Amino acid sequence: MNPIYTGDIQAFHRFGFLWLVPLFPLVGAAINGILGKRLQDRFGRKAVHGIAIGAMLGAAAVAVGAFAQLLALPADQRFLLDTRWEMLRIGALKVDFAFALDPLSGMMTLIITLIGTLIHVYSVGYMATEKAYWRFFCYLNLFVFSMLMLVMGDSFLLMFFGWEGVGLCSYLLIGFWYTDVEKAKAGMKAFVVNRVGDWGFITGLLLLFWGLGGVWGVGAFRAQRPETVTVDAKHGGAAMQIKHKGDRAPEASVREVGVGPTMVFRELRDQISIKDASGDKPFSQQLADKTVWGLPLLFVVCLCFFIGATGKSAQIPLYVWLPDAMAGPTPVSALIHAATMVTAGVYMIARLSFLFAMSPGAMTVVATVGVLTALLGATIGLFQYDIKKVLAYSTVSQLGFMFVGVGVGAYWIGVFHLLTHACFKACLFLGSGSVIHGMHFLEHGAHGHGDDGHGGGGGGADPHAEPAHGHVSAAAGHGHQTPGHTVHAAAGHHAPSHETPHHVEPPAPPKPDLWLAPSPTDPQDMRNMGGLARLMPKTRLTYLLACISIAGFPVAAGFYSKDEILWKAFTNENTIIPGALLWLIGFITAGCTSFYMFRSYYMTFHGRPPTDEIRRNVHESPASMTTVLLILAAAAVLIGPVLGWPHAWGGHPLLESFLRPVFAAAEPLVKFNENLHATEYLFQGLSVLIATAGCLLARTLYIDLDRTRVRLEQMRNAWTGVHRTLFNKYYVDELYREIAIIPTLDFAKGFAWIDAHIVDFAVNTAGKVGRWAAGLGGWIDRIFVDGAVNGVSKLLLSGGRRAMRLQTGRINNYVLGITVGTVVLVFVAFFAGS
Amino acid sequence: MDAIFQIGLRHYLVVAAILFGLGLATVATRRNAVAILMGIELILNAANINFVAFSHYVHGGIAGQAFAIFIIVLAAAEAAIALAIVLAIFRNFRTIDAVETATLRE
Question: Which CATH fold would you assign to the domain B9-105?
Answer without folding.
Answer: Helix Hairpins (1.10.287)
